[in-house]
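hey can u check if this looks right to u? its 252 residues, i copy pasted from the old doc so theres a chance i mangled smth
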Amino acid sequence: MRIHFAAAETPEAADAAKALMAEYGQATKHDCDVVVVLGGDGTLLETVHSMLDLDKPVYGMNRGSLGFLLNPYKPENLVDRILHSHSVTLFPLRMTTRSHDGTVTEALAFNEVSLLRQSRQAAKIGIVIDGIERMPELVCDGVLVATPAGSTAYNLSAHGPIIPLSANTLALTPISAFRPRRWRGALLPSRVKIRFEILESDKRPVSATADYTEVRNVAQVDIEQDEKTGFTIMFDPDHKLEERILKEQFSA
C-alpha cells in the first residue's frame, strides 16, 4: 500500500510522521493509495481542501487538540487498520458570495458556512430558501449553515442540533439571535438553495467564512450542497463517524 503522510506543524505530529515514514515510506500525493493525516480536525480539513482534485481517500490519526474526524493514534498495524476501515463520503457546501463592488467569490465548506458581524452593531440578515423569503430580518451576531459532519463543531457550540450522517439534512442556526429572540433555527433538506441577504450592509458589515476561506463586507451569500464534489474519509470499525455523532446526542 502506497501511503502519503500529511502532518500538522506541531512537534507531536511531526515526530509521528517521521516515525511512520521510516516504517512505511512516503509516496507522493499523486501516486498514493491513501492519505494518512496526523494532527487535528483542522489539519484533516486543510489537507482535504488541498487535495480534492486528486480524489484520494483520507485516514486520519489524532495528533492534535480536536479529533472528531480522526481515529485514535495507533501506529501499529497501520496497513491492516486501513484495509479494514469503514468509509464515508462527505459532500461540501458551496458558498458563493457577492461583495458591494460586484466581486464574486466561491469556496467549499465541509463543516459549515458562517456569517458574522464585523462591527459593534448586530447584523441584519434576510433569509431566502429556494426563492421564498422565510425571514425578512434576523438581527444577530451571525448565522451558519452546517453539514451533518459539521453539526458537532461550531453549530453545536451555537446550540444547533446534531444531525445524523444519513439524515440528508442541513442545520440553519442563528448565532446570538436578538430578534426574533426565541428563534432557534431550522432543519432543511440537503438539496435546498439558501440565500442570505445582508441588510444595511454599509452600516452593519458582515463577513462570510467557508471552512478556511473568509470574505469580508459581503452583500449576499448563496449556499447549496455540492453533490459533485466529495471526499472519502476512513474510520476504524469501532470508531465509525455515524456512531460517534449518535453518541454525541446523549453526552452530557
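The chain has two domains: 3-90+230-248, 93-225.
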